[in-house]
Design brief:
The structure holds two protein chains of two kinds. Chain A is of the alpha+beta class. Chain A is 42% helix and 29% strand. Chain A has helices at 8-19, 23-42, 88-97; strands at 5-6, 47-49, 53-60, 63-66, 73-76, 79-86. In chain A, the strands form two sheets. In chain A, strands 2-3-6 form a three-stranded antiparallel sheet. In chain A, strands 4-5 form a two-stranded antiparallel ribbon. In chain A, a hairpin with a 3-residue loop joins strand 2 and strand 3 (53-60). In chain A, helix 1 crosses helix 2. Chain A is extended, with a radius of gyration of 19 Å. In chain B, helix 1 crosses helix 2. Helices cover 41% and strands 30% of the residues of chain B. The radius of gyration of chain B is 19 Å and the shape is elongated. Chain B has helices at residues 3-13, 19-38, 84-90; strands at 42-45, 49-56, 59-62, 69-72, 75-82. By secondary structure, chain B is of the alpha+beta class. The longest helix of chain B has 20 residues, at 19-38. The chains are: A alpha+beta, B alpha+beta. At the A-B interface, strand 1, helix 1, helix 2, strand 2 and strand 3 of A face helix 1, helix 2, strand 1, strand 2 and strand 5 of B. Strand 1 (5-6) of chain A pairs parallel with strand 1 (42-45) of chain B.
């Protein structure tokens, strides 16, 4: 494992190399992609990217939680959480790449 | 929303780009994320979330049909954690 962290910059650099737009425009396109995906999720839509994976929003009901330090009961309000289910292709490639 | 709808939206916002270039752009982004994780790297997209690789230790599994024990090797699986901004937006703030 190389244990590096990639950021938006690395993704825009990849777009820049692949398509030959300016660095600035490549960065804006990466941003638009993330923005459209976020907006769809906030609207409650599922975002399904074939051969990548599926982002879905799930509703969690209210429940009683407990402060683990004090033991005190605290109500946890209903909320929406985001889940990601990787595609088989992603799972296979990640497993193969990190083997051994 | 599916991949083609995402491509369509980006294409509409960028009428100066060819549809096929928009496809390449969107595909490059997802491909780059998978390649990074296949190398064992993390991809951190502030506000959206972070993709990382988690190790699952070897374990003894069981064939649910026969009850037979099977050795499951150590493996690495993709993981995504939503960013704070997106989590907050999902909950209306």
């Amino acid at each position: 494992m190389s244990d590096k962290t990639l950021t938006r910059m690395d993704l825009s650099e990849a777009v820049f190399r692949e398509v030959g737009l300016s660095r600035n425009e490549s960065a804006q396109l990466v941003e638009s992609v993330l923005q459209h995906m976020s907006d769809a999720l906030v609207r409650g839509e599922t975002v399904k990217i074939s051969s990548f994976g599926t982002f879905a929003v799930r509703d969690k009901t209210a429940r009683m939680g407990r402060n683990p330090k004090t033991g005190e009961e605290v109500p946890i309000s209903p909320r929406r959480v985001l889940t990601f289910r990787p595609s088989h292709l992603m799972k296979d490639r990640v497993a193969a790449g990190n083997r051994g | 929303m599916i991949r083609s709808e995402l491509i369509q939206k980006i294409a509409e916002e960028n009428p100066h780009l060819f549809q096929r270039d928009v496809e390449r752009i969107v595909n490059t982004i997802f491909e780059e994320i998978i390649e990074a994780m296949a190398r064992g790297d993390r991809v951190e997209l502030r506000g959206f979330g972070a993709f990382s690789v988690k190790r699952r230790d070897a374990r003894t599994g069981r064939n649910p049909r026969t009850g037979e024990s099977v050795a499951v090797e150590e493996k690495h699986v993709p993981f995504f954690k939503a960013g704070k901004l997106l989590r907050d937006r999902l909950n209306g703030s």
